[in-house]
Q: What sequence folds into this?
């Protein structure tokens, strides 16, 4: 499994072929995205969530508990070895439970590469039969939003002292949250963080419903915003002590039920597949074009743009028109 | 100017035409990217940096001081109005100085849209003759890395209590830093944050040089890593009091001198233009393809992928092959 995931993550031909073969078996897992600023204790929370889903190891019923895969999207530097070290530390925490699989993804150089690699790994884990797939992303950037968008249920994690000021708004990912979590709730200021987040939610949604008002939806094309009718809960946890994690696991289950009943799950799935196909189309067309094009011609155009004798957009248009005329 | 920037940010035809007309006048400005986690006081630091570059308002020499444009890439939600409010607050700080221009960008839904809009706005400000363009991004995600990559000089900002643990590594943007800043240096723990960052840098680069060892460079394709021979400084500032900001402004100037002398500036520019052209090529080809394609056919393929009767990659290949056969 680990080897296949590496092939998929690196987008090798073998990995892509494997993914194509697995594709018919996907679509069963509940994919949960967990994001938030550094320092909010997301890794610990994700580990404890996995434990909560798995239940008591002494329990005879454990065979019936959902299996869990954790995908940690960790932008650690390639030279730090952070991803591998992180896996080892986590493995120790959850060791001995064959119902839990952990995988870290290192950030790659190219925009979109990380999101695509993660999507492939999630599909493979889905096909392999994991019931819950927890994707943990560090940070609050656009790529994190895109990765969260691939999830069915998105948690945004805050912590006291980080999330109780205007930064909570600035983090700008409140609007993708299905569930808000104030972790490290045993620290001072947790209550005010929770209140601030509630106030922010209420400001945005005075109707008390979900975040997707019609007007907002129209501005953010194709983005499957949290469904109307789902009131985003703000939950407190102290993951390091295990406090509040059971309630969070229940809220995640509740959200899944809501998605299925409301038909929102099918809508989100459609938007996700459409975005994936459009992205693949872009890559395939560009790859085919550059293969047929002489490299010298692209370099010539590049040189003209660098010397400012033509703007990049017109240079690219000309390349495409010339290629068309020759075809 | 503000109207033109809006047209460019929204990628309207008028904006794109304006950008093409301005393009020959670009390439003069020094573009500085400032990034880091929320809560590190980046906005205050950027304001104070602008003030440091501008010099004393009473000074007769001010006419000779560099002009400054600030581009704040603010992922505030579209409904919060955060970007506009932010501009007003900042305008008050730097008010009355016609040599400073401030522009906030709101995050858009589409991956890459924000990076592209920001690049266009920076080009327009460059053509308009601003000497220093400060791009401030919130967060530590992939999109921030990409935006930083478009800058000549990249600052990564940390703060005590946020950056002094393993999260500093996890933020994973150390490797794009030309200059590291510990802001809020008047708070307890600033020294240990600075030491931790220095230790991290030394671990990564035991030779004491820049971050771009040959092995590392090879792993991160096309990414213009910080140049060899530039020793990344770790500077302390307390922007709210103005402490250390002059020294930071000087380090930014030093880095610019280094880039020019070493030839690294030209290399970074070439990598940036190549990436921009490849991205434009992807978009143009996909747009042309979808225009010629019947919408029904794409929807049909989408349906097949959703029902798992074909995988997305093969579905897209088939669409392209069918279109080619018909042409």
A:
């Amino acid at each position: 499994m680990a080897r296949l995931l590496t092939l998929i993550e690196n987008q090798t031909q073998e990995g892509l072929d494997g993914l194509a073969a697995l594709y018919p078996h996907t679509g069963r897992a509940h994919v949960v995205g967990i994001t938030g600023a550094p320092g909010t204790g997301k890794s610990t929370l994700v580990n404890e969530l996995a434990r909560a889903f798995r239940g008591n190891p002494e329990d005879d019923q454990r065979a019936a508990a959902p299996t869990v895969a954790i995908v940690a999207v960790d932008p650690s530097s390639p030279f730090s070895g952070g991803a591998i070290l992180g896996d080892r530390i986590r493995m120790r925490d959850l060791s001995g439970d064959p119902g839990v699989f952990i995988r870290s993804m290192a950030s790659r150089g190219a925009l979109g590469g990380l999101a695509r690699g993660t999507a492939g790994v999630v599909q493979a884990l889905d096909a392999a039969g994991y019931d819950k797939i927890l994707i943990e992303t560090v940070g609050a950037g656009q790529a994190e939003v895109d990765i969260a968008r691939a999830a069915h249920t998105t948690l945004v994690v805050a912590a006291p002292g980080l999330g109780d000021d205007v930064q909570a708004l600035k983090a700008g990912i409140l609007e993708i949250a299905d569930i808000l979590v104030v972790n490290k709730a045993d620290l001072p200021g947790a209550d005010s963080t929770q209140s601030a987040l509630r106030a922010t939610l209420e400001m945005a949604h005075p109707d008390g419903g979900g975040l997707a008002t019609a007007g907002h939806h129209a501005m953010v094309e194709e983005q499957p915003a949290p469904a109307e009718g789902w009131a985003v809960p703000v939950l407190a946890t102290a993951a390091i002590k295990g406090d509040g994690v059971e309630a969070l696991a229940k809220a995640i289950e509740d959200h899944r039920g809501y998605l299925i009943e409301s038909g929102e799950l099918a809508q989100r799935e459609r938007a996700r597949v459409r975005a994936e196909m459009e992205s693949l189309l872009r890559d395939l067309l560009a790859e085919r074009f550059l293969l047929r094009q002489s490299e010298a011609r692209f370099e010539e155009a590049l040189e003209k743009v660098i010397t400012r004798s033509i703007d990049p957009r017109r240079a690219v248009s000309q390349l495409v028109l010339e290629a068309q005329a020759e075809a």
User: Anything to note?
Assistant: Chain B touches chain A through 92 residues (CB under 8 Å). Residues 122 and 268 of chain B are 16 Å apart (CA to CA).
